[in-house]
Amino acid sequence: MKRTAAFLPLLALLAACSGTPSQPGAPAEKSLAIATMTLPQSLDPKDANGSALPFFQAVYDTLVKREPDGTFSPMLATGWTYDAAMTELKLTLRADVTFDDGSPFDAAAVKANMERFVKGGGAQAKTLNDVKTIEVVDATHVTLKLAQPNPALLYYLSDAAGLMANPADFAKGEQLKTQPGGTGPYELDQGQTVIGTKWVFKRTAKYWGTRLPYDTVSISYFDNETAIVNGIRTKQLNAALIQDADQQIAVEGAAGVKTVKQDFDFQGILLFDRAGMVTPRLKDPAVRQGLNHAIDRQTMLDKIRQGRGQITGQVFGPATKGYLPELDTFYGFDQAKARELIKEPFELKLPRIPAIVSDALAASLQTDLAAVGVKLVWEDVDAGSAIQKIFRDRAYSGMVMNMGQSPADWVVVGELVLPGAFNMFGYSDDTVKKLLPKIQAKGEQADLQALNRHLVEDGWFLPFYRMTYLHVSDGSVTITPQDGMAVPSIYNYAPAG
């Protein structure tokens, strides 16, 4: 398949969204045109991650479905049971599902997918780290045996780890990257798709599940929200997520546009270097506490986000058991106290990814930190080099990120507290080591709140605020936000009316 540059002029991309007129007398096809600023690494399930999930949901089903309210319901698995120790999960599978080539979906396919997912080493591979063996009982039953309890396992099976591809494609090199094969409601239209710019999915002829309302779904990639807003206004695009506050204000006034608000991501500095391996001063909790007191969260929210959000000092969101309302305002803006805690000046170098760190945000943080003796140095990093420099070279002590506040407490722990991409140096301390086994075994609210309070008081992170996002449509689509995701699932769109 021909590859083109990811960034095309708006006019050309919108023209491509218009499709082919129906023949006279033929039923009008229902099509959905979604805009996104998330570029999938590929369409191979081992590469699935974050807000790219809808690309995968179009062609692959998950073992468990996560409903819009966050509850779990059957999908490829019709039922599941845990043993008393929570170290054995038994799944019952559908017996009437086939892959795109007609081969059966069965327990052997589940085993093959999960083992490949872990070996693939993608961003979400670690979510199955606790699964030590996958036992095929018979065609419709599989047992996952865990080394230790994983309270978020069902959540992961409704996400990237649960996507089921056709094992027949595993031996075909990198075919799945551009030619996905699954059991899902759509298949990739190779003729209409331009990888890197626009992906077009057409309805499969014999989908086993509930028929979704659209015959064709396209997902187009944009590198700026101004272009997306223009597409929504002119009705060349049907649906999108708008994050930038100024663009939200711009689109809200457009004729016919429908909007739905959602608070999901928090923005803040994820401090990786709590052991002081890159920036020695960060080893001192008092310094990290000083950084938290140094920033004026409310002014940042008012000026950068136009007040659209809520200030916070914690990474656990309101839907979690670990959330404590008082921790949102634990660190008041107090630069005198910040200077007292930080004591000696030092330099802090962070990567600047333009899509995340705007000019206004970069300047605000530099000004606030300079006032307490911290020289913040931004190093511009483009999308192509970000992963290498940040996560492989480990060149920085932290980074500004927009992070989803999952409603599943153990997902928060897995992403931010356990060793992994956002705890790349594997830092821990005695309090965390004491609490995690208790949380893993029982997940009691008191332990989760104790962990959250400790992370805040010890300055593990530097959150700014939770951001209000805006789901927008051209008026022809009803959008239902997805619990646990910033973007809606592919199942959450329906014709308005």
TrEMBL record:
<dbReference type="GO" id="GO:0042597">
    <property type="term" value="C:periplasmic space"/>
</dbReference>
<comment type="similarity">
    <text>Belongs to the bacterial solute-binding protein 5 family.</text>
</comment>
<keyword id="KW-0732">Signal</keyword>
<feature type="domain" description="Solute-binding protein family 5">
    <location>
        <begin position="72"/>
        <end position="409"/>
    </location>
</feature>
<dbReference type="InterPro" id="IPR000914">
    <property type="entry name" value="SBP_5_dom"/>
</dbReference>
<dbReference type="GO" id="GO:0043190">
    <property type="term" value="C:ATP-binding cassette (ABC) transporter complex"/>
</dbReference>
<dbReference type="InterPro" id="IPR039424">
    <property type="entry name" value="SBP_5"/>
</dbReference>
<dbReference type="InterPro" id="IPR030678">
    <property type="entry name" value="Peptide/Ni-bd"/>
</dbReference>
<protein>
    <submittedName>
        <fullName>Peptide/nickel transport system substrate-binding protein</fullName>
    </submittedName>
</protein>
<dbReference type="GO" id="GO:0015833">
    <property type="term" value="P:peptide transport"/>
</dbReference>
<dbReference type="GO" id="GO:1904680">
    <property type="term" value="F:peptide transmembrane transporter activity"/>
</dbReference>
<feature type="signal peptide">
    <location>
        <begin position="1"/>
        <end position="18"/>
    </location>
</feature>
<keyword id="KW-0813">Transport</keyword>
<dbReference type="GO" id="GO:0030313">
    <property type="term" value="C:cell envelope"/>
</dbReference>
<dbReference type="Pfam" id="PF00496">
    <property type="entry name" value="SBP_bac_5"/>
</dbReference>
